[in-house]
Each structure stands twice: as structure tokens, then as C-alpha cells.
Amino acid sequence: MPGRSGSRGAALFKVDFKSYASLNRDDLAGKVILVELPARRGGTPEQQNAAGVAIATFGTWARSAKILATIVVSREPGVARGVNSSYLIDPKAPETPALLARRQAAGRVPMITVQDPRIVKLFDAHPAGPIAAKLSTSLGEPIQGKVKLRNVAGLLRGSDPALKDTYVMVTAHYDHIGIRGAAGADRIFNGANDDGSGTVSVIEIASALATLKERPKRSILFVTFFGEEKGLLGSRYYGKHPIFPVDKTVADVNLEQVGRTDDKEGARVGEAALTGFGYSDVSKVFVASGELEG
């Protein structure tokens, strides 16, 4: 939010996420609402995406109701993150001014995630509707700083004189989402699955192909990207500043969540979930290879 903002003695209102659309917006203007949002962790990718869409729709509704602030009640220790508004921007990107304008637009509703037994007790003790309590908040100026980030790339030159100037990319992102909460034994989102496994796979594939007596016919470009979790920044940057011509790049095989063994439905070893079927015939190559490997 631009500048310093907050509230003093604002009225509290509990909202039931399942029925918020039936509320009268005029009754909520200028109030701080307490709400428990659907979980975005766990479940299938489809369920996670559906939860994300539902939460985004709720945010649009909150802005239209002219709510002062949203306090999200979390029951899971370590999830609380205060005002979740940190993001990366490329100051030279043409879309940056529009992005900042949206981020700093008047009427944006601060969403503060809180994990505290007292808040949970207050939330559970009241039915949906007004709560006989007041809340004061104070939000400081946005904190801005420069961060230098890098994509990391390596090239294995192809063996075929005609094809060595064409490229297959093998990629993964090496970032995760940092620190969670303010306390606890393990505050780090370790990211071994998403996407340490992909980053290690890129390195191992590069090592394996480099030791072959006969190298692949095409050149293989190995890249690990920064900033995937904050808006696909590394891959976007490469798309705008490719090392080798895009028209000479025939495919990008991007790796994520490789060899997962802690999935709720069992270990994901010896199988793969592919996206991008509708964009090229690369998927057919993987299907044929999978059949050969059993």
C-alpha cells in the first residue's frame, strides 16, 4: 500500500467464507473482517488451483465491499506471515509500471495472516456477524531494496555438424519461498521437492550426457532459473534475453518435483506427470520413451 495507513478502533466482523457472497457490502464498509480461508497446501493440484481461484475471488469481493482490512485466521503453526505482499520486480521491464500501479492502487485491502490461539478462540466463539471488539492497525511505508539475482546456465555442445546450432533446454528453478513465521524449530521452507529435486536433476543430467562417448546431436542448454515462486521472473528474463536464438531452440524440458516419495497417494517414482501436451509434439517423445523404459 502507498504511504502509511492503518485503522484505530475499527469494528470487527466475522465472515463465513462459504457464504460471504450473500452479505450486504454496505454492512462491511470500514470494518476489519475475520475469516478462515480454504487451505492451499495439500490435496491435488486441481484442488489447490480451485482454492487459489476462490481466494482471489474473495479478495475482489473484499475490495468491492470497501473493507478496511482482512485478518486471515490460521490454525497451522508457522503459516502466519503478516501482510503477505512481498514481490520481485524487474525495474527495466515494460510491464513494471502497470504492476506497481495495481499493487499500490487505492482501495487495496491488506490481508494479514495470523496464527495465534487467542485469535482462533475469538473466531470460534462467535457466530458470523459483528464481534463486540475493536481493532487498531498501523502499516508502515513499503520497504524496497535492490537484489541481484542470476540465472545459471551451462552448454553441452552437440555432436552433429548440422544440428549443433539448434538447442534443447533442460531447466528448473532454484528458488523456493524463504522463511515462514517468526518462531518455531524449523522456519525454513526447505524446498527439497519444489524444486531442489529439479535443480539436482538438471545437474545430474548434464553430468550424465557429458560423459557419453557420443554426445547428443543437438546442443543441450542447461539453465536453473531464479524467482519462479515470485512470478516466473527468471524464465521471463531468459525469454526476453535468450542466450541463443529462440528460433533455434526446439524445446524446453522443465523439471519440477522429481522422484517425490511423500505424496499422499504414494511414492511418485518411475512415473511422470506432463503438462504442455497442446503446445508441441514433445510429449509424444516422452510417451514413447516411457513405453520403452516400461
Q: Can you tag this structure with a few keywords?
A:
6 helices, elongated, 10 strands, Aminopeptidase, 294 residues
Topology:
Blueprint: E1 5-14, E2 32-35, H1 45-64, E3 69-73, E4 82-83, H2 96-103, E5 111-114, H3 117-125, E6 129-139, E7 152-156, E8 167-173, H4 192-210, E9 219-225, H5 233-240, E10 249-254, H6 282-293
Parallel strand pairs: 1-2, 2-3, 3-5, 8-9, 8-10
Antiparallel strand pairs: 1-6, 4-5, 7-9
Q: What fraction, in percent, of the residue positions are helical?
A: 25-40%
- CATH uppermost class of the largest domain: Alpha Beta
Helical segment count? 6
Mean pLDDT: 83
Task: Give the helices and strands as they follow along the chain.
Answer: EEHEEHEHEEEHEHEH
**Strand segment tally:** 10
- Per CATH, what is the topology of the largest domain? Glucose Oxidase, domain 1
Q: What can be said about the biggest beta sheet?
A: 6 strands, mixed
- Total domain count: 2
- The backbone outline, from C-alpha atoms, is elongated
| Low-pLDDT segments | none
Q: Note the quaternary state here.
A: single chain
Strand order in space, largest sheet: 4-5-3-2-1-6
Strand content: 15-25%
In short:
This protein is 26% helix and 21% strand. By secondary structure, the protein is α/β, with parallel strands linked by helices. The N and C termini lie far apart (54 Å).
Q: Could you characterize what this model shows?
A:
By secondary structure, this protein is an alpha/beta fold. It folds into two domains: 5-139, 3-Layer(bba) Sandwich (Glucose Oxidase, domain 1); 152-258, Zn peptidases (Aminopeptidase, 3-Layer(aba) Sandwich). The chain is built from six helices and ten strands; from the N terminus they run E-E-H-E-E-H-E-H-E-E-E-H-E-H-E-H. The protein has a six-stranded mixed β-sheet. It has a four-stranded mixed β-sheet with strand order 7-9-8-10, sandwiched between helices. The model has no long low-confidence stretch (mean pLDDT 83).
